[in-house]
Specification:
Layout (H helix, E strand, L loop, with lengths): L1 E2 L1 H18 L4 E7 L7 H6 L9 E7 L5 E6 L4 H16 L8 H19 L13 H38 L1
């Protein structure tokens, strides 16, 4: 439902209150508003956009179930709206956001570091090929093969992460 800006902010504050008491999430979306009455949408999409033209934007808020709010903000009203909208978000979100569990993050980082350290140290294969302690040698050979496979897997994972990071940098 399209509301004026003051009513939208009032309804949004109520939406924050209800989701804080009963639980749930709120989705906020901002989008450039390009609709023009009387113009065919296909023609409007094909027409080149004028870079000097200022567009309004539409702001939507949903709780996923039954509440859907939206408002249209014109470029001339943007600064005033952003101030009141930012104040509302800071007031309603500050105490209710989920805190990061830094202890678990630290433990996970320590486990990853320990695993990398173990992969860096080669398994020493020693002992006779036949006779006493042969089984120990076979176990170490098997451990060395397993370590090589783990190194390959870790290397591929690092390469994939680097590719994704490069792709995201290129997209920006």
């Amino acid at each position: 439902m399209l509301l004026d800006q003051a009513e939208f902010l009032k309804q949004l504050a109520q939406l924050f209150e209800t989701t804080n008491t009963r639980g749930g999430s709120i989705w906020l979306t901002h989008k450039r508003y390009t609709y023009e009455a009387g113009v065919d949408p296909k023609v409007a999409r094909q027409a080149p956009n004028d870079p000097d033209r200022e567009h309004a934007f539409i702001l939507r808020a949903m709780d996923g179930d039954d509440v859907k709010l939206s408002t249209l903000v014109q470029p001339s009203e943007l600064e005033l709206f952003q101030q009141s909208y930012g104040t509302l978000l800071k007031a309603k979100m500050t105490g209710h956001m989920r805190k990061r569990d830094k202890k678990k993050e630290k433990q996970r980082a320590e486990r990853v570091a320990a695993k990398k350290k173990r992969l860096a140290v080669d398994v020493v294969i020693e002992g006779p090929k036949r006779g006493a302690r042969r089984t120990k040698r076979q176990q170490r050979i098997k451990a060395a093969k397993k370590q090589d496979a783990a190194r390959d897997s870790a290397r591929k994972t690092d390469e994939n992460k680097a590719k994704k990071a490069a792709a995201s940098q290129a997209a920006q």
